[in-house]
Amino acid sequence: MLTNVAALVYDGVAPFELGVLCEAFGLDRADDGVPVLDFAVCGVRPGPVETDMGFAIDVRRDLGRVAEADLVCVPAQPRGEAPPEIIAALQAAHERGARLLSVCSGAFTLGAAGLLDGRECTTHWRYTARLAGQFPLATVVPEVLYVDSGQVVTSAGTAAGIDAALHVWRQEHGSSVANVIARRMVVPPQRDGGQAQFIARAVPECDADTLGPLLAWMMENLDADLGVETLARRVHLAPRTFARRFREETGTTPHVWVTAQRVRAAEELLERSDRPVDWIAREVGFGNPATLRHHFTRVRGLSPQAYRRQFAC
């Protein structure tokens, strides 16, 4: 279980992306029942590290601290060569089984350490082509907010670092803890869609009102028929027009969005209630335990019962 986190920095680090990691893993939220992690920012040596914003930060821990960490984080850094000491520290952490997480261009540092070879990964949409060209043995997935390839988690631009951090919290300490942290950070517990919704493009012409009210209704009625034709009728649109509008507003399809919400609702019920799995399956709209088990295991990597054993309050 995650208890110890180190963030690696060197000259040119982006302070905002470093701040994301500090906020996600370094803040004491014990008063809200969140486990307190042993967190440290580490450099090649103690002392000032220049940021890319024209000021320096005082780093007090060297790379020896990294050897203690369960999770080693790499914020956005220069996309040139990282110091060899940083590369060696990342390789050693990977070799001993520590998990690695990068934010934005931090993926280039992982790539320079050879840790993206044979893995799916991502970075900010502006740099995905460059990442793929620089590290041809990696499989770059440009359209997502983060990629979890097991031991290595890579995320896209700044806010996607929050998404990836919450994902790690959710895996290590459960949905309830991740939700508390998200509320404290005033962000969604998990965003849907991918980077495509943030890439500049022409604004489509569409006369439909925002789907916000419909999404809120769907969240309150997960056990209802939420097929495309039914939803389209509720907002007085043709099914194809509705499906296109839904993707424009959410970055994903109605089916994927609904499935994700049903899995999250099942998580909450598994953690906070002792209701049987067949009741939970009906309550969240999956209908039967087999369907719940299929989607839950695909998304979370655990069966509903295994998830309950690990994360029940």
> How far is the first residue's CA from the last residue's CA?
16 Å
What's the helix-strand series?
A: EHEEEEHEHEHEEEHHHHHHHHH
Strand content: 5-15%
Total beta-strand segments: 10
**Fraction of helical residues:** 40-55%
Structural class, please? alpha/beta
Mean pLDDT: 90
Low-pLDDT segments, ≥5 res: 199-208
Question: What's this entry about, in short?
Answer:
The protein is of the alpha/beta class and 313 residues long. 44% of the residues lie in helices and 12% in strands.
Account of the protein in words:
Helices cover 44% and strands 12% of the residues. The chain is built from 13 helices and ten strands. A six-stranded mixed beta sheet has the order 2-1-5-6-10-9, with helices on both faces. It has a two-stranded antiparallel sheet with strand order 3-4. Strand 7, helix 4 and strand 8 form a beta-alpha-beta unit. Helix 10 (254-272) packs across helix 12 (289-300). It is globular.
Secondary structure topology:
Layout: E1 4-8, H1 15-26, E2 38-42, E3 47-50, E4 56-59, E5 71-74, H2 84-95, E6 99-103, H3 106-112, E7 120-121, H4 128-134, E8 139-140, E9 146-148, E10 152-155, H5 158-173, H6 175-185, H7 212-220, H8 228-234, H9 239-250, H10 254-272, H11 277-283, H12 289-300, H13 304-311
Parallel strand pairs: 1-2, 1-5, 5-6, 6-10, 7-8
Antiparallel strand pairs: 3-4, 9-10
Helix pairs in contact: 1-5, 5-6, 8-9, 10-12, 10-13
